[in-house]
Amino acid sequence: xTDDSRPDPTGSHPPRVDVPLGDTPRIVYxxxxxxxxxxxxxxxxxxxxxxxxxxxxxxxxPEDKVLxxxxxxxxxxxxxxxxxxxxxxxxxxxxxxEQSAIRELEEETGWTAEHAQVLMIGPTSSGASSEKIAFVRxxxxxxxxxxxxxxxxxxxxxxxxxxxxxxxxAGKLGQGYELDAKLWAGLWMIDHxxxxxxxxx
Length: 201
What we know:
The chain is of the alpha+beta class.
């Protein structure tokens, strides 16, 4: 007989935790992109597209410049600095994470990529939403257009030397911009593997 509550010493599986699921979820509002759900005492949002997944793209040009995008975000009523990102499968439900990431990269920045690698997938705000996001590293970048997003978006592309990217972001924060907290995770993943070891150039 085994004790499934003990952590797996190999680290390959998390310990089993028996947590009640709570009441049946009840949808109180559904829009084009999100729905609001009540489950017991919890209120949270879900993405409406299949899989409910988004992707953030970590992209460095051949000139060793990190790609950032600036745009006005309605919920914050402020201009934000982010890495290129978008929903997975909202245009084509059969689209893979990698395909979605390259499409969003090209739409927003005007750069395309030969390869895309999913580094990890995790929740964005587990206390308020079921949404998960995939960190995707793009490589083999090539300039193919102006970027700027689709007709409903007003995106400014910033190409920032990698060595000074963190300082540039800190400067934008001091200027009053809203900065996506995932930016620093993305910068870290440029030079590191998930286990903390240095990533080969």
